[in-house]
Amino acid sequence: MGRKPNADTIRLIAGVTLKRHPRTAIWQLSCSAHSQTIRKSLMTTDETAARLAALDYYQAQREHIRLGKAFNRVSFPEAATAYLQTVIGKSKRDYHAETIDRHLLPYFENFKDIRQVTAGKVSDYLVHRRTKNAREPEPQTLNRENTVLRQLLAYAAIQQWLPEKVLVPHINQSLTARRRRNFTPAEYGLLVRTARRRIQEAMDNPRERHVADQRRLLLDAIVIMANSGLRVDELHKLNWRGVLWADGDIQLERAGKRRSNRRLVLNESAIFALKRIAKRRQLWLGRRQESTELDPLEPVMSLPSGIPVTSFKKQFRTLLDACGFEYRNAAERHSLTSLRHTYATRLLTRKHRARPTVSALAKQMGTSTKMIEAHYAHDTVEDYRDDIRGRGGKR
């Protein structure tokens, strides 16, 4: 005789029973198929949902055992969680987790069995990803995200949750529609002059005087970026310990989303901008009878009071409008990152001083020579007319 079921056990059909977990009240399935006993949590406290899930699981289990296949149904979210535990390196793991949470889970979270993710479903997802926002992501952005999906599905195949690897296509990056716009010398000159004018306007107007320090910091941030090649996130990560005054350099320590550790050689304009920020901070401390020694761990991008400024996006957009720049569409609009492109272009096209090699510039900017040539250099053959004709002169 078999064991008599408890009063709180539900017998669905022969060999299939449900029972609530004594502490969590989550329904547990127990079933037998082809002489094999399987127990599984159904992850729900709803009886109706548990009944449906139990019968669905039981029928799938019977079919797989009949075909002689091992069966271990894992949902997409479960596979994603397990995969992230295998990713080595905090920076990489953070990016993969962000991509999964932001893009993959909203689309695939209802896939209760990862085997539902076929090449066709991946194709449908890519169409969804390209069209869900008004502005379509660049091919290189999609390829970075697709790498996460590809590695996640490869891990699932290794775990035998998938019968085989699922094809995740690589998009031809030559289809990239545009590169981020740089500032021409005339545009950059107008940007700086307008920023200075707005500082003076704030000082002359008692109602706006409180924003003068914010505008001063924005101007210095612009000058630093245009004369160093820093990324925006690296600029905000920079602290006073990283400013090497004696050499006129800065040392990044796990800065930005790439966790960059590198040394940058600054142009004089960037050094002067750093000195202006430091002097404003020291004057503020001195007026309060405090030590004027800068805190090594304090962010450079801070107001004289020491309050960090974590974003210049809104201020910079206002400044662009004040400059009167006109754009045909939002994609053409300058951004703070345009200053990084301006730096690269300026160094590669300057006429009267030696130009750095692409390799040297790549080291300075923390990227590859391929990226410099494909995305950061906005030079054209016109910039090399005298060089080609042999009239470049000594640089």
Write up this protein.
The chain has helices at residues 47-66, 76-84, 90-108, 119-131, 139-158, 185-204, 212-226, 232-237, 268-287, 313-323, 338-349, 358-365, 369-376, 385-388, and strands at residues 9-13, 16-20, 27-33, 36-41, 243-244, 249-251, 263-265. The protein is an alpha+beta fold and 395 residues long. The protein folds into three domains: 9-66, no CATH class; 76-175, DNA polymerase, domain 1, CATH 1.10.150; 185-388, Intergrase catalytic core (hpI Integrase, Chain A, Orthogonal Bundle), CATH 1.10.443. The strands form two sheets. The protein has a four-stranded antiparallel beta sheet with strand order 1-2-3-4, with helices on one face. The chain has a three-stranded antiparallel beta sheet with strand order 5-6-7. The protein starts with 8 loop residues before the first strand and ends in a 7-residue tail after the last helix.
SSE order and pairing:
Layout: E1 9-13, E2 16-20, E3 27-33, E4 36-41, H1 47-66, H2 76-84, H3 90-108, H4 119-131, H5 139-158, H6 185-204, H7 212-226, H8 232-237, E5 243-244, E6 249-251, E7 263-265, H9 268-287, H10 313-323, H11 338-349, H12 358-365, H13 369-376, H14 385-388
Antiparallel strand pairs: 1-2, 2-3, 3-4, 5-6, 6-7
Helix pairs in contact: 2-3, 2-5, 6-7, 6-10, 7-9, 12-13
- Characterize the largest beta sheet: strand count, sense, and whether it forms a barrel: 4 strands, antiparallel
Number of domains: 3
CATH class of the largest domain: Mainly Alpha
Provide the gyration radius in Å. 30 Å
Question: How far is the N terminus from the C terminus?
Answer: 98 Å
> Looking at the structure, what is the overall shape?
elongated
DSSP, total strands = 7
The assigned CATH architecture of the largest domain is Orthogonal Bundle
What class do helices, strands and sheet pairing give? alpha+beta
- CATH fold call of the largest domain: hpI Integrase, Chain A
Total helices: the number is 14
Q: In which order are the strands of the major sheet placed?
A: 1-2-3-4
Low-pLDDT regions: none
Percent of residues in beta strands: 5-15%
Overall pLDDT metric: 86
Helix fraction, binned, reads: 40-55%
